[in-house]
Design brief:
The complex is a heterodimer of chains A (239) and B (371). With 239 residues, chain A is α/β, with parallel strands linked by helices. Chain A has 9 helices and 10 strands. About 3% of the residues of chain B have low confidence. Classes of the chains: A alpha/beta (239), B mainly alpha (371).
Chain lengths: 239, 371
């Protein structure tokens, strides 16, 4: 069963085509890596799938709902973590989670339990009353992830979730992603780090708005006859 | 409902955690109230004056003496020539030149026509106007008294008499006009400026994207912004009314509940404008320019500094689209004159229409998904 089905999705800004007829599917519970150089159109594609951008043409079914006619239902069933850190810096950890949880309509009592549990899991319980701008970036990222997961979405979109954090935090973050995926949540992640791409079940490479390659890391390496995804990327981009 | 309450709570938490915004909200009105009315007033307290005396008679000397002894005039002497006097005015040392013609005394005695020239520095037209008429008054007063001694006929006197009476603001108390005007400025700034900047800021730091990806509805988001800023605006207004009473002893002559009612409509207009601007502007700088441009336009046309009656016809037409002009009427009429809602029906209807139109436009243009 596919949780994301995208067909000929296109986005044009004036004469510039940011995303050019991309087509792919993502299975439920899969970790799907979305690779590409800067400006390749990854973020634009992701924003369209989240309902933040109106596609110029094409179709998509996200979590079983049509992007065109059921955008509200899609929003209820996805989580999104943007490239920029976008929780409120002047609210505390707890207040941020309470705000977003409430907006998703989680009942008060249930929400408090979920916040407590996820802070416990992140070992951030004692930080609940700290303002977000006072905690380190690595923790902020995990907090943003936990907040995006509060309403138990079927799919979570992560836009370069680990940019700017150190390798240890990155590894911890990926552990979090694995744990989440093992619970049946589909993970759609864009990244610049080629080693992270190796952790994905399947990856795709975008260039100049087009989706050039889709497959498991091993398939892509075999196809391009190289040893690492980094080489796949370099070879591909230089082509 | 729970979502909107949560959004309101979030907004208040943020306001009270932002020392800058909070101080703007509290200190700005204080400063405006305590400083502005004393500086932005047109009261003429002292006039600098010089005389060109071509007559050198006892009449001209006693006129000069009369002005010199008045506390409202400072005599800068008798320049020898007109050119010298004009040069003094050019250097802004004097506001007025009074020139006595040759044979002033002789003509007066023989009941012939004679004219005294008053030259005013009209860069400050208010000062020039008020000063000129005041000088005229003093001159005719002087001549009247002179006539009693020198036995001038009634006929000559009536020609000399000039009187100016200022209706409605007889004492020329500009504070009464300026202070309520500051109330208007306060409410406008909170409504349009703070709201627009707040939303555009969320755009800039990206939090609005995180909100937009949730199933939240447009109207929920807008209400969640509107209600807190409406409450803040009304608190500012009440604070202003309090300061107005404490500092200037001005009380609202009309009904306070009705004034609050109309103010809340005006606030809705300004909030709608703020939303609309935030949906057009990409960043805080753009928002600031737009608000600044509109604000200056509104203020200048509103009749706070210059009466609307003196404006050309086309300006009056523009004023039909100027919410501040309507609200300025309301404030002046309710605070100073004690008008009733019946007197203000046109303003209330106009403001209500603007509130509906602007907020609908804001709701329509607010994009959950950007282009």
């Amino acid at each position: 069963m596919h949780s994301i089905e995208v067909e000929n999705l296109t986005k044009k800004f004036g004469h510039f085509t940011a995303v050019d007829h991309i087509t792919f599917q993502v299975r439920k519970g899969e970790i799907f890596g979305f690779l590409g150089a800067n400006g390749a159109g990854k973020t634009t594609a992701m924003k369209m799938m989240c309902g933040l951008l109106q596609p110029t043409s094409g179709k998509a079914t996200i979590a079983g709902y049509s992007l065109k006619s059921e955008a509200k239902l899609i929003k209820r069933n996805i989580g999104y973590m943007s490239q920029r850190f976008s929780l409120y810096n002047d609210l505390t950890v707890y207040e941020n989670m309470q705000l977003f949880g409430t907006v998703y309509g989680i009942p008060r009592k249930e929400l408090n339990t979920r916040i407590f549990n996820s802070l416990e899991e992140l070992q951030m319980t004692e930080k609940a009353k700290t303002l977000v701008n006072a905690i380190p970036l690595g923790w902020k990222q995990r907090l943003a992830f936990a907040t995006a997961m509060l309403h138990r979405p079927q799919i979570v979109f992560l836009d370069e979730p680990t940019s700017g954090v150190d390798p240890i935090v990155r590894r911890e973050f990926w552990n979090l992603i694995y744990r989440t995926a093992s619970q049946g949540v589909t993970i759609f992640v864009t990244t610049h780090y080629m080693d992270e791409a190796e952790y994905c079940n399947r990856i795709s490479i975008m260039s100049e708005g087009e989706l050039k390659l889709v497959g498991t890391p091993q398939e892509l390496k075999d196809k391009m006859q190289v040893d690492s995804i980094a080489d796949v990327f370099v070879k591909f981009v230089n082509r | 409902m729970r979502i909107i309450l949560m959004l309101i709570k979030k907004e208040f938490l943020q306001v009270f955690r932002s020392p800058l915004l909070l101080s703007i909200l509290i200190v700005a009105p204080m400063v405006q109230f305590l400083l502005f009315p004393f500086t932005a007033d047109y009261e003429v307290k002292v006039l600098h004056i010089a005389f060109i005396d071509n007559d050198h008679s006892s009449v001209s000397r006693s006129i000069i003496q009369k002005f010199t002894s008045s506390q409202y005039f400072i005599n800068h002497g008798n320049p020898a020539s007109k050119a010298e006097a004009e040069y003094m005015m050019l250097r802004d040392e004097i506001d007025f030149i009074i020139e006595f013609p040759k044979d002033l005394e002789k003509n007066l005695m023989s009941q012939q026509k004679s004219s005294i020239a008053i030259m005013a520095n009209a860069i400050n037209s208010v000062k020039a106007g008020i000063g000129t008429s005041y000088i005229q008054n003093m001159l005719s007063e002087f001549l009247q008294r002179e006539s009693e001694y020198k036995d001038l006929s009634e006929n000559t006197l009536s020609q000399l008499f000039t009187t100016n009476i200022y209706w409605y603001n007889e004492k020329m108390n500009y504070k009464n006009l300026i202070v309520p005007g500051i109330l208007v400025i306060l409410v406008t700034l909170i409504g349009a400026y703070v709201t627009a900047l707040n939303i555009v800021r969320e755009k800039e730091i990206g939090t609005i994207e995180q909100i937009n990806v949730t199933p939240i509805r447009k109207w929920q988001f807008l209400l969640g912004k509107m209600i807190p800023f409406w409450i803040l605006g009304m608190s500012e207004f009440l604070m202003g009314i309090g300061l107005m009473y404490l500092v200037f002893d001005i009380t609202v002559q009309g009904s306070l509940p009705i004034l609050l009612g109309i103010t809340s409509i005006y606030l809705l207009v300004m909030l709608g404008l703020g939303f609309f601007i935030s949906s057009v502007a990409e960043n805080q700088l753009q928002a600031m320019f737009i608000v600044f441009f509109l604000f200056i336009l509104f203020v200048l046309l509103s009749g706070l500094f210059t009466p609307t009656e003196g404006m050309p016809h086309w300006a009056a037409y523009i004023n039909y689209f100027n919410p501040m002009s309507f609200y300025m009427d309301v404030i002046k009429m309710m605070v100073l004159k004690g008008s009733t809602i019946h007197d203000l029906r046109i303003q209330v209807i106009s403001l209500s229409c603007m509130a509906i139109i602007l907020n609908s436009a804001a709701l329509f243009f607010y994009k959950e998904n950007s282009r």
